[in-house]
Amino acid sequence: MPEPAVLPPSATARTGRASAAVLAPALALALLPALLAAPARAEETGAPSVRCQVTDPRLAELSGLVDVGERMLAIPDGGDQVSVAVLDGGCQVVDVTTAPLDPYDPEDLGVGADGTVWLADTGDNNATRATVALIALRPDGGTALYRLTYPDGPHDAEALLVAPDGTPYIVTKEVLGASHVYRPAAPLVDGGTVALADVGTVTFTLTGTPGGPVGRAGQLLVTGGAVARDGSRIALRTYTDAYVWPLAGSDVPAALAGEPVRVALPDAPQGEAVSFTADGGALLVAGEGLPGDVTLVPVPAETAAPATPASTAAGPSGLLDGGDDGTPPLAAGLLAAAVATLLVWLAGRLRWRRSPDQPPAA
């Protein structure tokens, strides 16, 4: 009799236990960066205030926002053509600029010092895209499509930083909090494909700030980026917090290697967009859903936070502070590992249960 495809119960049980034994330590190691690092220091700022509410159905999935003074630019997540909405101070759409390009998954928006509007068509939830793209809408009305490839395979990315010298940086969205920073490795070619270079990593940690659609994991997922109009600061946001760094010149990787100031954001169902105000004194944040608040969040005048001494970077306060549900970050990580182990064990148990038409083991 041929050997059955499903192992006998005893062998499968051993396989399930072995898989669980291997997976649990591996998962725990993968979680260590987010669990053991102390979160960036949260600064006390003025109370956030709602500037206005977006109600236009074309922006129900708002994912990118830039404040340009008396107007704001916004893009939706999706659509079958490039579309940039122009909003007035009351969040009403007063104009829409389009381009004859069909984006795959546009996620963020930036404006260069020369007035070029950049769209990051970099969304890739399933990590299957061979290329991602940057789309440039120039002040003279021209458009350009620049395709890009990652050096290490596909990534999902929702944050774009356009440096004062015009260099675009893409920051990935990583479930364990270690986001990679990429920039083009060669001059961009309209209609062509250029490789990206990995120029740094930014590690995010659990903060306990509530918000977002995915629970505490949202505290680690980067959903947007911004560069101040005067080029003095940059920001990244997650579903729950914003991080602000001082920027010297156009050296974005060096800035991101420093210690940021963290600003807890108002609880929102799916916050994705972030922009500095035109004067650079505050952040504007927004997200998906209608009506959607565009909220003004003050940031400290002193952006740079003092470096955390190495002896206390992973001290008890960083490990034991409770999150939004009162569970310490370390305990939450260990619980996740335990749940994963249980799921593997259950999968092993289910695999050996024969279907009605399966022959018994020889």
Would you write up a description of this structure?
There is one protein chain. The chain has helices spanning 9-36, 252-256, 316-320, 329-351, and strands at 49-54, 62-67, 72-76, 82-87, 93-99, 108-111, 117-121, 132-137, 143-149, 157-162, 168-172, 178-184, 193-203, 222-227, 233-238, 241-246, 261-264, 271-276, 282-287, 292-298. 17% of the residues lie in helices and 34% in strands. The protein has 362 residues and is of the alpha+beta class. The protein has two domains: 9-38 and 320-351, no CATH class; 49-307, 6 Propeller (Neuraminidase). Helix 1 runs antiparallel to helix 4 (329-351). The strands form four sheets. The chain has an eight-stranded mixed beta sheet. It has a four-stranded antiparallel beta sheet with strand order 1-20-19-18, with no helix packed on it. Strands 2-3-4-5 form a four-stranded antiparallel beta sheet, with no helix packed on it. It has four helices and 20 strands.
- How do the strands of the widest beta sheet line up side by side? 6-7-8-9-13-12-11-10
Relative helix content: 10-25%
Q: What oligomeric arrangement do these chains adopt?
A: single chain
- Class of secondary structure makeup: alpha+beta
Q: Could you name the ranges where pLDDT drops below 50 across 5 or more consecutive residues? A: 1-32, 304-362
Large-scale geometry: globular
The total beta strand count reads 20
**Helix and strand pattern:** HEEEEEEEEEEEEEEEEHEEEEHH
Query: Could you report the average pLDDT, rounded to the nearest whole number?
Result: 79
Strand content: 25-35%
Q: Under CATH, the topology of the largest domain is which? A: Neuraminidase
Transmembrane segments: 330-348
Keywords: Membrane, Signal, Transmembrane, Transmembrane helix
Signal peptide: 1-42
